[in-house]
């Protein structure tokens, strides 16, 4: 059904249609029987799909990547579409509007997107309040989704003070999320990727690890990396995970590469996602898995448009996978196809 309406949706601006679809999805789930119908059509509950990764129990291994639900508005609705976990954000300490519009572009001939959103979000306080409300509104016996908090720095914060922004987000979200993702790999905040260098990255991760205990509870901290890193930089990443003791890696974020693109918007600045990233993100997963001898979990994301794409990432060493651009191009049926294939 989604493939029938997709040509209509793709006639409109990507960012505007995103908000149109998500608003109406929320409305549908509020109608009497809407939530139940959504779950009946899209979700798949089977004990064989459960995964335990970095101490958390996931109902299935297919999650929604950060960037789709920046402000924690759609947690329940995305769960009703079959996702096993949701990653909200990227959130920053203070609200920020992001980069000037237009800032998201479809590349249909390449099954891809380019975005230069720039961490547009309502700030960490709003996200924290909404996640808390989601948990409070769960009915008795209803299982909560695993929720990750993807955290970043405000654009106006200089890199020398970036650690303070990560601390603020970490402390504010600690009581409401299940795991954290440190995002230093988006290409859309000036200078952010410089924080992927070993010294500043070690400082951020070690600082968060030192704060990672409250009433005897700690949260898994993951690092999201770019697909554009060299092998020697990936070796550094594996070493950083070992030295800091963080829980794992998310591979990968969007790429600045434009190799082989044919669509009209191929020269727009920003991060490229979708099928052009499929091969490279899987290569990064495989490299890190082998270089570390499987010492830490990896969440695989980047160009998953089919059940086969998901299986390739899992076979390369990923413990879980996430969707974003493939979800937009293929629709919610992609989640169920992946889960059926896994079974």
UniProtKB/TrEMBL annotation:
Protein origin, superkingdom: Bacteria
Single Gene Ontology BP annotation: 'de novo' UMP biosynthetic process
Record's keyword annotation contains Transmembrane helix: no
SUPFAM superfamilies, sorted: FMN-linked oxidoreductases (SSF51395)
Membrane topology: Peripheral membrane protein
List of residues binding FMN: 66-70, 90, 150, 183, 224, 252, 274, 303, 324-325
Binding site for substrate: 70, 115-119, 183, 188, 253-254
Active-site residues annotated for this sequence: 186 (nucleophile)
InterPro entries in the cross-refs: Aldolase_TIM (IPR013785), DHO_dehydrogenase (IPR050074), Dihydroorotate_DH_1_2 (IPR012135), Dihydroorotate_DH_2 (IPR005719), Dihydroorotate_DH_cat (IPR005720), Dihydroorotate_DH_CS (IPR001295)
Pathway: Pyrimidine metabolism; UMP biosynthesis via de novo pathway; orotate from (S)-dihydroorotate (quinone route): step 1/1
Protein name: Dihydroorotate dehydrogenase (quinone)
Taxonomic path: Bacteria, Pseudomonadati, Bacteroidota, Sphingobacteriia, Sphingobacteriales
Name of the encoding gene: pyrD
């Amino acid at each position: 059904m989604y493939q029938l309406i997709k040509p209509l949706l793709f006639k409109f601006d990507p960012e505007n249609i995103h908000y149109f679809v998500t608003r109406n999805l929320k409305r549908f789930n509020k109608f009497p029987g809407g939530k139940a119908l959504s779950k009946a059509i899209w979700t798949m509950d089977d004990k064989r799909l459960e995964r335990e990764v970095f101490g958390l129990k996931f109902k299935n291994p297919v999650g929604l990547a950060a960037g789709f639900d920046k402000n924690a508005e759609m947690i329940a609705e995305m769960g009703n579409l079959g996702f096993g976990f949701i990653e909200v954000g990227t959130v920053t300490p203070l609200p920020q509007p992001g980069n000037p519009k237009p800032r998201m572009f479809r590349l249909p001939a390449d099954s891809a997107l380019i975005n230069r959103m720039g961490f547009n979000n309502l700030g960490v306080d709003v996200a924290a309040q909404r996640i808390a409300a989601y948990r409070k509104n769960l009915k008795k016996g209803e299982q909560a989704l695993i929720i990750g908090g993807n955290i970043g720095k405000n654009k106006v914060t200089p890199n020398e003070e970036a650690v303070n922004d990560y601390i603020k987000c970490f402390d504010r979200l600690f009581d409401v999320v299940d795991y954290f993702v440190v995002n230093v790999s988006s290409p859309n905040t000036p200078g952010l990727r410089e924080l992927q260098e070993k010294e500043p990255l070690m400082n951020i991760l070690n600082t968060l690890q030192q704060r990672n205990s409250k009433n005897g509870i700690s949260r898994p901290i993951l690092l999201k990396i770019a697909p554009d890193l060299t092998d020697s930089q990936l070796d550094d990443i594996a070493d950083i995970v070992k030295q800091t003791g963080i829980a794992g890696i998310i591979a990968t974020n969007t790429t600045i590469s434009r190799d082989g693109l044919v669509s009209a918007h191929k020269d727009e600045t920003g991060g490229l996602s979708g099928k052009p990233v499929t091969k490279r993100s899987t290569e990064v997963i495989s490299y890190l898995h082998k270089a570390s001898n499987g010492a830490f979990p990896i969440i695989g994301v980047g160009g998953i448009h089919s059940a086969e794409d998901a299986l390739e990432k899992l076979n390369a060493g990923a413990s879980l996978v996430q969707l974003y651009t493939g979800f937009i191009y293929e629709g919610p049926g992609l989640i169920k196809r992946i889960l059926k294939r896994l079974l």
